[in-house]
Specification:
This protein is mainly alpha-helical. It has a domain of 227 residues. 75% of the residues lie in helices and 0% in strands. It contains 21 helices and no strands. α9 packs antiparallel against α19, α10 packs across α21 and α17 packs antiparallel against α21.
């Protein structure tokens, strides 16, 4: 099979995966492995590669993502344990007591709560914690629920850049590096994003106050969805400070200790389980309670490894990039990081996370490589700029959970959030250029 035919096969393969994902025909893991298998069969049938060679390519692909899969399993378990023992509830409850009926205080606290809740990188869980807790207060203060969602999604977008967050792990998987390594490059842009998220909360709090919000002067702390009063089955209030310190130590080790990120979470999980839950039976029960999301995401990452192994090691990606690069003027090639960064938010509305990172990113990296642009710079702009819009995208399931909890129509959510989020994305891109994180 010649280079043009390999490129054509690659385009068909990626379109097939993206179509399966966007139409919800099957779960991402099955889409990746089934399409990759069909592509492999075609390559074997045409005599391009042998079965043994394809097996080696697949093994290499899976080998490149196993660390990321392990990271996700143990990070989900660790933060799940911290949620079970009530650590986050206690922090959020204490913060809410400081707010009362202050409109700007409420919107600012919404941002902080969303950031804390999103430490585990799970969008659905963040919406479940933040929206029910804050919506009664917003209604009482006459703050629009679309503002609640706008503040939430802005805060969640910047927190989703953490190394155990889905987009960063996916991008690191494509690059073949540790998520921690990619995150440390992104960190300056994330800090800027956090500042923007907090500023967003303050700005819209002022806007809502000018619209007449906060006319009721009563203290609304008790209305906070009952979150601070919630008693969890496995709550460990006497161990709050231990669990908080343990969480901080884990995060510090991720930044400064040169060991695999998954190993840090392994140790953190072991300590958290041993201290908070006595006996193998109870520990086993806790682990099983968090097995669902851990298995779902890790299986997706491993199957994406199969897909990437087939696409990259057979040379398909290189050939696709060569074909596409022919359509990019030489004068514009070096500006690809900026072009991609600017277009990331609109693209997010069309592509879900898996198709965006596992479908588009490898091709764009190869194209950019032909113009001397480093793969990491493409990955950084795709992660940071795309993340801003993750939870306004209609192809991201958590979006519908958020709007359902807030009783907001998807069209109203997108209409309200899209211009602001796109602006936030571009500001983050400019920050990356100024700080030297992104170069062209």
């Amino acid at each position: 099979m010649n280079e043009t035919m390999l490129a054509l096969l690659g385009f068909v393969t990626i379109i097939a995966v993206i179509t399966l994902l966007l139409k919800n025909v099957t779960v991402p893991s099955l889409a990746f492995v089934s399409v990759a298998t069909i592509t492999s069969a075609i390559l074997v049938a045409t005599g391009t590669f042998s079965v043994s060679e394809m097996g080696d390519f697949i093994a290499e692909g899976v080998k490149g993502v196993h660390a990321t899969a392990a990271l996700f399993i143990f990070s989900v378990l660790f933060f799940g344990i911290m949620t079970d023992v009530g650590m986050f509830d206690k922090i959020i409850g204490a913060l809410m007591k400081k707010v009362g009926h202050n409109v700007v205080g409420v919107t600012l606290m919404t941002s902080i709560i969303a950031m804390i809740a999103h430490l585990d990188g799970a969008g659905a869980a963040t919406f479940l914690i933040t929206v029910p807790a804050m919506l009664p207060i917003y209604k009482k203060l006459k703050i629009r629920p679309t503002t609640l969602l706008l503040i939430c999604v802005t805060s969640m977008g910047v927190m989703n850049l953490l190394p155990w967050g889905g987009p960063t792990m996916r991008a690191a998987t494509v690059l073949g590096i540790e998520p921690n390594e990619l995150w440390l490059q992104i960190l300056p842009m994330q800090i800027v994003g956090i500042i923007i998220a907090l500023a967003t909360a303050v700005f819209w709090g002022v806007v809502e106050k000018k619209r007449g919000a906060g006319t009721d002067g009563e203290n609304l702390t008790a209305e906070a969805g009952g979150l601070q009063e919630e008693v969890r089955e496995y709550a460990r209030p006497k161990l709050f400070w231990f669990n908080l310190i343990l969480t901080l130590v884990v995060i510090v080790c991720l930044i400064f200790v040169k060991v695999p990120a998954y190993y840090v979470f392994m140790i953190g999980c072991a300590i958290a389980l041993l201290v908070n839950f006595r006996g193998a039976s109870l520990q086993n029960k806790i682990i099983k309670s968090h097995a669902g999301p851990a298995i779902m995401m890790s299986s997706t990452i491993l199957c994406a490894g199969v897909f990437l192994g087939v696409m990259e090691n057979t040379g398909i990606m290189n050939n696709m990039a060569t074909v596409l690069a022919g359509f990019v003027p030489m004068s514009m090639g070096r500006f690809l990081p900026i072009i991609i960064g600017v277009l990331a938010v609109p693209l997010t509305l069309m592509f879900d996370t898996d198709s965006f990172f596992f479908g588009l990113m490898p091709v764009l990296i190869e194209i950019a490589g032909n113009f001397g642009v480093l793969p990491a710079h493409i990955a950084i702009v795709m992660v940071v700029c795309r993340n801003c819009a993750t939870f306004i995208s209609p192809v991201v399931p958590a979006t519908f959970l958020g709007i359902g909890l807030a009783d907001v129509e998807i069209k109203d959510h997108i209409k309200r959030c899209f211009p602001w989020i796109w602006g936030v994305s571009i500001v983050c891109l400019l920050a990356g250029l100024v700080l030297g994180v992104v170069k062209f």
